Amino acid sequence: MGIKTISSREVYRNPWTSVREDVIERSNGKRGIYGVIDKDPASIIIPLETTPEGEFVYLVEQFRYTVGGRFMEFPQGGWEEAEVVPEDLARGELKEETGISAEKLTHLADLQIAYGVMNQKHHLFLAEGLTLGETDPDPEESDLSLHRYSVAEFERMLLDGAIVDNCTAAAWGVYLVWKRHQDQR
Fold this sequence. Notes:
CATH architecture of the largest domain: Alpha-Beta Complex
Number of strands: 11
Mean pLDDT: 93
Shape: globular
Strand content: over 45%
Largest sheet: 7 strands, mixed
Radius of gyration: 18 Å
Number of helices: 3
């Protein structure tokens, strides 16, 4: 049952990504090639602000080279380190990209990003008790801008195609399920 790796070779590496080509054998005995992108763990954070006026989320907008455009998404990223403390990573990415510090981080789930081609764990956190501060972006993130939306506006953006990041959409879905379970307690 499953797929057996016959051989594996790295075909490319940079500080963020490695790509390998595996010769595999399927359970039916047929061999093939599998291309795999390996990346160190990342985090995605839902910065949720609750006020008397309602609930709001913070999104970052940035240029995504691979798809050639600027897009809105929850703060997310990694440190190019295989061994990280997930909460430290989440707090660091949140501060770096948005300048926001969170009084409380709640771990909601560990997901895999695009596991049909990539091996990268994504630690999902809810950030609450937010305090705005100065950002400290990486050189690759110099074009980031921070935006605040009501939850209703954000959800409309998910449905009308203004937000196309699957990680952001998945994170919000997990949050809604988590919240429903919290409300049932």
